[in-house]
Amino acid sequence: MSELVAHAEDSALWSTLRRHTQARIGLGRAGSGLPTRHRLELQAAHAAARDAVHSPFDPDTVAAALTGTPTVRVRSAAPDRLTYLQRPDLGRRLDATDRAHLPSGEWDLVFVVADGLSSRAVHEHAAAMVRATTVRLSADIRVAPVVLAEQARVALGDDVAHAMGAAMVVVLVGERPGMSAADSLGAYLTYGPKPGVTTDADRNCLSNIRPPLGLTYDTAAAKLAALTGRARELGLTGVGLKDESDALPAAAPAQSG
Question: Per residue in 144-167, pLDDT tens?
Answer without folding.
Answer: 999 999 999 999 999 999 999 999
